[in-house]
Amino acid sequence: MNKVAALVLAAGKGTRMKSRLPKVLHKVGGKAMVERVLDTVNAVGVDRSVVIVGFGGEEVRAYLGDRCEYVTQAEQKGTGHAVREAKPVLGDFDGTIVLMCGDTPLVTEDTIKALLNEHTTTGAAATVLTAHMENPTGYGRIIRDEEGKVLRIVEQKDGTPDELAVQEINTGMYAFDSQKLWPCLAQLSDDNAQGELYITDVVGILVNAGERVSAYMTMDEDESLGVNSRVQLAEAERILRNRKLRELMDAGVTIIDPATTYVAPEVVVGSDTILHPGTILEGNTVIGKECEIGPHTRFTNVTVGDNNVIHFTYAHDCEIKNGTDIGPYVHLRPNTVIGDKVHIGNFVEVKNSIVGEGTKFPHLSYIGDSDVGGGVNIGCGTITVNYDGKIKHRTRIDDGAFVGCNTNLVAPVHVGSYSYIGAGSTITKDVPDKALAVGRARQMIKENWVTDDTFKKK
Questions:
Q1: Domain count of the chain?
Q2: Domain match, 207 and 295 both
Q3: Of 240, 260, 258, 238, nearest to 249 (Cα)?
Q4: Sign of CA dihedral 12, 58, 41, 86
Q5: Using one digit for the tens of pLDDT, what is the confidence trace for 394-432?
Q6: In this structure, are residues 354 and 371 in contact, taking their beta carbons and an 8 Å threshold?
Q7: What SS3 class is residue 260?
Q8: From CA 378, how far away is CA 365, in angstroms rounded?
Q9: Is 23 among the annotated ligand-binding positions?
Q10: DSSP assigned state of 200
């Protein structure tokens, strides 16, 4: 295959979004739309990726970083004008330019590969990605001759009644022979209903010049959805989510209620895992086999092993190993690693901590910046006091330690292996192995402190 460059249109404001944010930075499935398009073309294996920015261009550049090259379209005068602005960057590129829209996050890698294959096989100067749509209102129509050859593309505002009756629509995605594209762009005219330079007019120019224009029709019209409003954004989100849920169910994952389960496209879930209603799996989350997740559990960038039961839990940027029992109402924060067979009960928060095998945090505890060994029991109400106002210190609790209820461990502090801490203690000094530590204030009793006068005052 010839070299391929991707050119992504991302300059529009998207006025119907009614947003300060550039349209292409609105997220679908947890990623900005333009990022999803870039991911797709990069998965195809393009040699170069160029994004045309305009409204909010600095924000788009900041979001995408060095993943691509950039062209600025200072004035938005149509799609043809946008592509023409890329000539200083791609004018010397010899190969195929695949033109993408930054607001079409549903197009797939397989479809772009098929488009490029059609383009190469037919030796066309241009190949249009099309779709059949029952209600094509708003889309450009593909006009063919009696033999089925592509003649031109007619925009909605410029079409005749017969042309607008056509149900084969232009998705706005194309493959162009780079050397034949640039001369056509110089011939574009803004003599149309919108007073803009249309990239669609390149098709007619090529046909009139005797060049071949091909078309590849995707069988999934959803791929053509361009997001121009919040309603369409929600629709794209629904379609992407349903694709992923179907993929997971086909691979052996049980999803109790797909209507209330949200899984990002990049998430991996092992077979025989059950996802209960209200489960949200985001980012680069990986769930192992034979887990039971949810209800009402949210994971963002979490790695989970096998045979875990986790419900009513929020976890992000952390790891949970195998055979754990977690929830309800648990918060696992970044840089936490929960070892095998750990039990974490209700109302527990763990942050930046390593927890060893078989340890138990039954309820109502905060464990932060800690290294906790295996077989440790943390009593109800235990707090690691990790912050002195300037620095966060670590707490170390060795294997087999038993920490009584309502204990404060004032870091930095080390609790030795198989040691015991009495309930209600505040521990400020290291506890040796197998020792008993009690750090309570002395109890005082004043008998007959309450008198009849005490009640009269109330």
A1: 2
A2: no
A3: 258
A4: positive
A5: 999 999 999 999 999 999 999 999 999 999 999 999 999
A6: yes
A7: helix
A8: 8
A9: yes
A10: T
Q: Can you give the CATH number for the domain in which 406 is found?
A: 2.160.10.10
Res 195 pLDDT > 90? no
Dig out the tokens for 253 from the structure: 């994952």
Euclidean distance between CA atoms 180 and 46, whole angstroms: 19
Is residue 203 exposed (0-12), middle (13-18) or buried (19+ Cβ within 10 Å)? Answer: buried
Cβ atoms of residues 436 and 418 within 8 Å: no
E strand segments, 23-104: 27-28, 31-32, 48-53, 69-72, 96-101
94 and 219 in a common domain: yes
Structure tokens at 111: 């479809």
Spatial separation of the C-alpha atoms in residues 153 and 172, rounded to whole Å: 10
Tokens linked to 199: 């990239």
Task: Give me the active site residues, please.
Answer: 363
- Verify that 211 and 241 share a domain, yes or no: no
Name the domain boundary from 224, 259, 291. 224
pLDDT digits (tens, 9 = 90+) for 298-310: 999 999 999 999 9
Q: Are the C-beta atoms of 207 and 152 separated by less than 8 Å?
A: yes
d(CA 86, CA 372): 57
In angstroms, the CA 297 to CA 310 distance is 8
Instruction: Tell me whether residue 209 is in a domain.
Output: yes
Q: What is the CATH number of the domain that holds 97?
A: 3.90.550.10
Q: Is 333 annotated as a binding residue?
A: yes
Of 205, 224, 243, the position where a domain reaches its end is 224
Could you tell me the two tokens for 61? 């550049």
191 in a labelled binding site: no
The pLDDT, as a whole number, for residue 458 is: 56
